[in-house]
Design brief:
Blueprint (H helix, E strand, L loop, with lengths): L2 E7 L9 E7 L7 E10 L2 H7 L16 E9 L12 E5 L8 E5 L3 E3 L6 H5 L2 H14 L7 E4 L5 H12 L4 E6 L2 H9 L5 E4 L5 H8 L5 E6 L6 H7 E9 L18 H5 L3 E4 L7 H20 L7 E6 L3 H9 L6 E5 L2
Parallel strand pairs: 8-9, 8-11, 9-10, 11-12, 12-13, 14-15
Antiparallel strand pairs: 1-2, 3-4, 3-6, 3-15, 4-5, 5-7
Helix pairs in contact: 3-4, 3-9, 6-7
Length: 338
């Protein structure tokens, strides 16, 4: 049986000290899948949760972490999507398994690597940019002329979302973050209209001032219950609030501002939760196509940038997970495999 090296977790879950390079069977391919030799993979917060045993894996996901990668096609199954061949340089999204020398992945989730982008840049694109497109368009129903606010503005999905919003005709793009350094980054580097430090100002009040009391049309939220009341205050009539995570905790606590639920029908607000990894392949494939059609040309000409905080050799995976745990990033962390 052919084997490969992959990042494993001692005892199957635990702290970053449990990460190690393991030897496991090389995956096999069938139907429309390709075997890709991985050159680089991106890190995501879900990886930390999976390592700790706190992330419910979809049934088709292997236990090896990692959902985005770049590399070369080593082998194709008989039902593979036309347009791909052995030796092609690609990047893509998977249900898991990217922390490894090889990954088995559907060709419906692969994209040809542009010559203008490096392996590391391509590995930093799929999960965050597809998630941002999903939140904006499929859930938030974004269209030109609408205003939008991205919480956790220096997080990877919001870095992508702010760029997408600006370049696709948003009337205004707002962001929040937890430090002046990060709010400055959102405005200076990403082009947000304004960004607010949630530790020093009431961001909902600031948004209402900036919009002359109207509020924003779309709010993309990763924080959860602690921001619900402010989200309802800052939302415009017929606004969409898209919930993608609960980084601030899953429960509404007494010390939080209490939400005014009258806002839901008074403003006709729609609040919807969503996730990407649990979606079926057909749904994810449509988003892959949207990425190719709407974002890839702008990556090629430099309009869009996959901001990378740091690149690690994969032997330093513990250090990479540690940096993500400490929230010390304004962009992607990427690991390379020699």
């Amino acid at each position: 049986m052919a084997t490969m090296k992959a990042i494993g977790v001692k005892d199957d879950k635990g702290p970053l000290e449990n990460l190690f390079i393991d030897e496991i069977p090389r995956p096999k391919i069938d139907h429309a899948k390709a075997l890709v030799k991985v050159r680089a993979f991106g890190l995501n917060r879900m990886d930390l949760m999976q390592r700790e045993g706190k992330y419910p894996l979809p049934p088709q996901a292997p236990k090896t972490m990692g959902v985005e990668f770049s590399g070369t096609i080593e082998e194709l199954a008989g039902e593979s999507e036309k347009g791909f061949k052995e030796g092609d340089a690609v990047f893509g999204l998977a249900y898991g398994g990217a922390y490894a020398e090889y990954i088995s992945v559907s060709t419906h989730m692969l994209v040809h690597k542009p010559e203008e982008l490096s392996w590391e840049q391509c590995a930093a694109i799929p999960e965050v940019w597809i998630t941002a497109l999903q939140a904006m368009y499929l859930i938030g129903e974004f269209s030109e002329g609408k205003s939008i606010l991205w919480h956790a503005g220096a997080s990877n999905v919001s870095i992508a979302g702010i760029q997408l919003s600006k370049h696709n005709g948003a009337s205004a793009v707002y962001a929040t973050a937890r430090s002046d350094d990060k709010t400055d980054f959102c405005v200076r580097e990403l082009g947000a209209t304004a960004a607010y430090n949630t530790k020093s100002v009431d961001w909902a009040d600031e948004v209402l001032k900036a919009t002359n009391g109207k509020g924003v049309d779309i709010i993309i939220d990763f924080i959860g219950p602690s921001e619900l009341a402010k989200n309802l205050r800052a939302a415009a009539k017929d606004a969409k609030i898209v919930s993608l995570a609960c980084l601030g905790g899953a429960n509404l606590l007494p010390e939080h501002e209490q939400p005014n639920f009258l806002s839901f029908f008074a403003k006709r607000i729609r609040f919807e939760g969503s996730g990407l990894r649990s979606r079926d392949e057909a749904y994810q494939g449509k988003l892959r196509d949207q990425l190719v059609d709407h974002a890839l040309p702008k990556f090629k000409d430099g309009s869009f940038k996959p901001h990378i905080e740091k690149v690690f050799p994969w032997k330093d995976i513990k250090e990479a997970h540690g940096q993500m745990e400490r929230n010390e990033t304004k962009g992607k962390l990427v690991c390379t495999i020699p």
